[in-house]
Amino acid sequence: MKPVVDIYNDREKKGQKNSRLTPQESQELLLKLTNIYPMTTICLDALDEVNSESRTRLLKVLKLVIDKSKTLVKIFATSRNDPDILQQFNAFPRIDVHPDDNFGDIQAFINMELGHAISDGRLLLGDVSPNIKHEICDTLSKRARGMFQLAVLQITYLCQMDTERDVRDNLNSLPDTLTKAYEGIYTRIL
């Protein structure tokens, strides 16, 4: 990690210890770091959640690092299939995973999280009939479309309901995207 230490020491001498790296400095540092090891894997999770402009710059930098590194650099990224992301990765091998590929995992996760919400008394004070639990699990599994975080936010939202009727009435109007779910949270907070 000598390149990182060198930058830190240099900035400390100049009294700039807390200043941020410029995009150019970040790119140069990343290239130096990849050249230290025979192979580097860079992992990016939820790339589609980065704003479009920043994402485009980031992907261009990563492509440059791949092209200029003296050693093998691999990128592992998770993302929805946004067109700009697909275009940037078009020249590289990729493995597509679709929401249906993890439906069983989502279903098990939702069932477990609902169980916790019921046993903790967060959902309807723990008084949940097997029918409503099944209905919630079934609906959320279909609506989550492979997004664990969306399922968590939807369960959290349902935990605010006072009656089974409220839960049923809200099941089909739950936010269907992370953005809408977070907007709902912000609205409730404000």
Q: List the secondary-structure elements in sequence, H or E.
A: HHEHEHHHHHH
Number of helices: 9
The low-pLDDT segments are none
Q: Class by helix and strand content?
A: mainly alpha
**Beta-strand residue fraction:** 5-15%
Note down, in words, how this protein is organized.
This protein is mainly α. It contains nine helices and two strands; from the N terminus they run ααβαβαααααα. The chain has a two-stranded parallel sheet. The longest helix has 17 residues, at 52-68. 14% of the residues are buried. The model has no long low-confidence stretch (mean pLDDT 89).
Compact summary:
With 190 residues, the chain is mainly α. The chain has helices spanning 2-13, 23-36, 52-68, 83-88, 103-119, 130-143, 148-158, 164-171, 178-189; strands spanning 39-44, 72-77.
